[in-house]
Amino acid sequence: MQPIRLAHVTDLHFGTEDPAVVAGLRADLVRQDVDRVLVSGDLTMRARAVQFHAARAWLESIGCPWTSVPGNHDLPLDRPLIRAVRPLSGYRWVVDAHPEPLLHLGGLQVLGLSTPRPYLWKGGRIDAGQVARIGTAFAQPARLRVLMTHHPVFRSRQRPRERVVRGAERALHAAARVGVDVVLCGHDHVQAQVDLSQAWPGLRRRMIGVMSGTACSRRIRAGESQSYTVLELSGKRLLLRVRRWRANRFETLAETWWRRSADGWRK
Ligand SMILES: [Fe+2]
Ligand SMILES: [Fe+2]
């Protein structure tokens, strides 16, 4: 059976992008030969049309399919009327008319949820309707089930005081019930991987939580650099490879193997 090879890319923040990293990221994604790029939001810095167009053009330039959800920066912060009435209009117009994509393709299932809200400054929420959607979206048989949100469903070691997305716990219980394998998120601009059943005791399944750093913006946290994650499924094994920007190129920072077992995934 063919491996499934994905790249998790997040927090591009066009408007504050570093052109050298943007070019390096495209070249590295081509080198990694991924089947699909999954983008977990904050494509722009200020939800400007020119920034959405730059993000879209960059995604198209990679030459492989991509799936995206919006982040809090993709809602206009400084235009309150648009923010209140049509918060995702720029994103929908330029990036994707469907901010909550559902993909079933070649054994891969991806559900993306839109977590930013106009009434939350930078936080996010998964509401009851979205939890219900998790319950129905993954009904078909699949080799890999991926849930993607912008806001994190777990706290990273580097930023232990950051808030998780509102509704994270009930969303994860729903995800565990339908056999989700991996939850992808961004927003914190750090790279992290966790066993979500340890972060959230009581989950009936061991799912993997993956966070990647900002992919190509200058908004890097202390001790971090721009990064993204390659996920490669072959048989019952899932390889997570963190690629980080260093000395003018992307290089592998860490590789972690996870193995599928009866109750989910173990390192
Ligand atoms: Fe961000
Ligand atoms: Fe964000």
Please characterize this protein's 3D structure.
With 267 residues, the protein is an alpha/beta fold. The protein has a single domain, classed as 4-Layer Sandwich (Purple Acid Phosphatase, chain A, domain 2), CATH 3.60.21.10. It is built from seven helices and 13 strands. The strands form two sheets. Strands 3-2-1-10-11-12-13 form a seven-stranded mixed sheet, covered by helices on one side. The chain has a six-stranded mixed sheet with strand order 4-5-6-7-9-8. Strand 11 and strand 12 form a beta hairpin. Helix 2 packs parallel to helix 4 and helix 5 runs parallel beside helix 6. The protein starts with a strand and ends with a strand. The structure holds fe (ii) ion (2 copies). One fe (ii) ion binds next to loops.
CATH first level: Alpha Beta
Strand order of the largest sheet: 3-2-1-10-11-12-13
Report the portion of residues in β strands: 25-35%
Rg: 17 Å
Oligomer: single chain
CATH superfamily label = Metallo-dependent phosphatases
What small molecules are bound in this structure?
fe (ii) ion
- Average the pLDDT over all residues and give the rounded result: 97
Helix content: 10-25%
Q: How many β-strand runs?
A: 13
- End-to-end separation in angstroms reads 22 Å
Number of domains: 1
Q: What is the second-level CATH architecture?
A: 4-Layer Sandwich
- Low-confidence region ranges: none
List the total number of helices.
Answer: 7
